[in-house]
What does this fold into?
Amino acid sequence: MQTTYIETQQISFQDFKNQILEDYKLGRISREMSYLGRREVLTGKAKFGIFGDGKELPQLAMAKVFKDGDFRSGYYRDQTFALAVDALTVESFFAQLYADTSVEREPASAGRQMNGHFATRSLNEDGSWKDLTAQKNISSDISPTAGQMPRLLGLAQASKIYKSVKFEGSEKFSKDGNEIAFGTIGDASTAEGHFWETLNAACALQVPMIVSIWDDGYGISVPTMKQRAKADIAEMLSGFQRKEGEFQGCEIIQVKAWDYPSLLDAYARAEQFARMESIPVVVHVVEVTQPQGHSTSGSHERYKNEDRLAWESQFDGLVKFKEWILDYSIEIDGKEEVLAPAEELESIDEEAKKTVKAGQKAAWENYQKTITDLIHSVLPFVENLKGQNSEIENYINQFNKLVSKAKKDVFHLVRKSLLATRGINSAERNQLMQKYNEIFEVEKDNYSSHLYSQSQWKAENIKEIKPVYSESSEDVDGRVVVRNNFDKIFEKYPETLVFGEDAGNIGDVNQGLEGMQEKYGEVRVADTGIREATILGQGIGMAMRGLRPIAEIQYLDYILYCLQGMSDDLATVQYRTKGGQKAPVIIRTRGHRLEGVWHSGSPMAGILNLSKGILVLVPRNLTKAAGFYNTMLQSDDPAVIVECLNGYRLKEKQPDNLGEFTVPVGKIEVTKEGNDVTLVTYGSTWRIVMEAADELEKLGISAEVIDVQSLIPFDLTHEIAESVKKTNRLVVIDEDVEGGTSAFILQQILEKQKAFRFLDSDPLTISANDHRPAYASDGDYFSKPSADDMVEKIYAMFNETNPQKYPAIF
It folds into this structure.
């Protein structure tokens, strides 16, 4: 059992004094970083700055109870905390401000995130997990206010799960579930729904979570009284306060941001509740100041009156901390002991300025050296071209006149020079071209790598294992195939768990998890409240801590509730950390054709466009869906798997190798061969396309039907182009709106696969109407493509080229 801060505070006065002065020093360093960071932005050396000044003391107090194995999920104000837990240095702070692309110098994001977005590296270079219990962990920050909250729930719940779930390697992620997840949020952001949904779920689940609310009285320029029903969030949350003997609710602690000893006591109590009793805690830190305003985009003098500004100056946390240190005295063995005289604190102040200036100088020099090294490696090759085009010298002179040079200026020079010398085949130009390709590959890695996994476990590397059938293979409902496959999954992978609305007790609304909770328990097969955003958040947080969660969103239409988290958080985890973190969540949902506006929508285009970074898998039946689950549980990519809602009662032959067979991602399947036209589709629409293809056959049109199976990645081996090369005609059939998924598929086939070269007719898309589907079978027929629609529109292609053989229908 881990000890807590309260249990380790029997120390000597000298140790106590050293701790206080170390805190003061760290607070001063953080403040000077904020001051100098703002100046660096305003002098043009950085693009934007947002800093944590004013929040130094509560973050120092929070850091004292933050132990190895703990996790933080926060936002862009926590630089003092990051310094205190050794997740940030002065140099790495400024490296991020300058957008240095070196992982070594800027390990949080390698220059991909604006300053103040912190992260520790959970992964080794090969994408394997580090021992997360041996380090203090920060899950990568995101800017959308309150967007960090749903993930916080999953990080905290993982500790509770690890109290009963063990598997090979689980010791890297938890020590008997004794870890706390810490969240931080600005007071104005508590107006967001994600805050309330997360806190509600945490109070219901009773997870070890501490949420710190930094209350500085404003949301940018809008005062708190206009943000919430009550200005005091602690008062507003009073109904969440737990009652004695009940296993619901949370503890609420309010403390002033400038009161150092009270802050230590507040966080010590919060840790005791969370670590020892698994009770969520809200620490409402009030009277927080913001000495430089919200960001470098503006001045807080524009919206704060003189009285407020004067108060903030007087109650600045570091000012009050200094006063407290100077006033502190205690008698020990008849002798008065003090913490430090004013001269010593002033010396610390001066030393902090020097430390920060030295760190900033080193970070700037390292950043500039990257650019100067690039210039020195490229410029000679450009100069060698001066004799081949008179404009080259002008380009070089313009480049040399630039006061400040960035990588983009170097690339602009090279590309302009190559453009000017197009058509010239010379050794000098070829050398420049070779150098350009070399530096382009480096910057491509710096700015565009790790959108998807680049490890040996990436989904594309998982080998296909076909389903095995025998004479004894039964014809069963599709739901039975996926249910029995889940049974094998839970048996094979003890780190796997599933949760969602109705997923547990009744085995999901379509019985795909029937009997699983009874067999594997409520921890691994769990019901949740109706709260899609935090169902996703549970998945992200758990996956970041080594579990393999399957987060169930009951219907595809309702995935819109968690699309923000999918887009801003999950889809960008690997990218925004340049491979430093991962969250291989599987989002299980069901959709496509059924009945009604809210149960048969197809927001696939939105998912495709907003969630690049997540695999999008669209199996046509439940056997294919089962195969995708088997594939993804061997991968470290996140994925959404959309089961066919109208397929659960359709008969399928159950494979003999449940839990073993896999469906490869990015691989299409030709389900009917043909010679005259290629029909491309996916999901539930496939069955209707097959029906239409049979009708077309009777009309003398031989259609080849292709099920794409996965939209992201899409047809990695370009087999669809080969089909079009054979048939010379292409039709994309989709139940999404016009210009939705069909437009994406068309772009992939025509542009990326260059299948336009083989077309004898205009490509055709057959999609749904732009409105949501109307109710019942008639609504489906008139709202989405029917077999009649498909037959008539495809037949018209042939009527246009050969009206005698294919006379007009209408």
